[in-house]
Amino acid sequence: MTLHIEPSDTTIGARILDLPLHRPLDEVEQAAVEKAIYDHSVIVFPDQQISQADLVRFTNYFGIAVPHVRKQLDNRELEEIFIVSNVKENGEPIGALGNAELTFHSDLSYLHEPGTLSILYAIEIPAEGGDTHWCDCYAAYDGLSDEMKHRLVKLRAVHRHYVEGQNPETPASHPVVCTHPATGRKALYVGPHLTKYIEGVSDAESEDLLSRLYEHALRPEYVYRHRWGVGDLVVFDNRCTMHRRDPFPDEQRRVMWRTQIFNDVSPVP
Ligand code: OGA
Ligand code: MN
User: Which ligand is nearest to the CA of 119?
Assistant: First the structure.
């Protein structure tokens, strides 16, 4: 069995066109998809027609789908599904994250044991805006000068959610450069949305270093931009990518179902 994998024209991201996900995958297919995730970090399955149960089954091939740490309304068939949406019903948001820009982050990095894979499945898409951009954090790391790589060895950064109640009691701290447990490759692991400061250096040095790293990681050659179509399912590996989302008009509807996987492990240098 060979999947037709079409890499994007940047260093990250690929599409798999010929694999319907409304039916169970056999072990060979599961292994081929897992390999594609490790090779490309972001995999797009366009034009799927799946149920919430299909999404959870697919997620469980790669770990265990867990309910998100943020509580949501009782409006989902399955608790493992997290709704990302700006839509309001009876004045109440049906999901999380609104319509504003989200800057680069790796999901759940404010936890001691952050998310590994996340999956987004597009139910409704606005006519304008709302594109998601993934940064290749392996390539961003590889593209740093030797001097900068050397400077980052042993540095750790504190990550916090902007909603204080989401944070663990002791703040999560992770290496600035992490090694992916499956690929063995090093990836930059800081982003402007959730990383607060680098430990053990002055505030000024932390700010200077983080802003230089963010500017570097924003370079277009490291980024895959996704213009969503209804039915697109995207799997991404938070251990070697960051993502950001463009804003979109609040009067337009955007609804995504999302699942996430944890590994019960902390990132390692
Ligand atoms: C998320 C997220 C981006 C998007 O669900 O963690 O960042 O495009 N979503 O909805
Ligand atoms: Mn996210």
Answer: 1
Tell me the pLDDT tens digit for each residue of 13-48. 999 998 999 999 999 999 999 999 999 999 999 999
pTM of the model: 0.96
Give 41 Cα–ligand 2 centroid separation in angstroms. Answer: 15
Residue carrying the six token digits 């292994």: 31
Q: Please report, rounded to a whole number, the percentage of residues in the chain having pLDDT higher than 90.
A: 89
Which 8-state DSSP code applies to residue 252?
S
Which ligand does the CA of 241 lie closest to? 2
Between CA 182 and CA 145 the distance in angstroms is: 25
User: Measured from the CA of 254, which atom of ligand 1 is nearest?
Assistant: 10
Beta strands 14-16 and 42-45 are parallel
**DSSP state letters, 194-206:** TEEEETTS-HHHH
245 ligand 1 Cβ < 6 A = yes
Q: In this structure, which amino acid lies at residue 82? A: F
Model confidence over 43-58: pLDDT tens digits? 999 999 999 999 999 9
The residues near 2 (Cβ < 8 Å, ≥ 6 apart) are: 32
- What average pLDDT is seen over the chain? 95
Is the pLDDT reported for residue 77 higher than 90?
no
Looking at the DSSP bridge assignments, the partners of residue 156 are 175
Q: For domain 1-269, give the fold.
A: Double-stranded beta-helix (3.60.130)
Tokens of 256: 């995504």
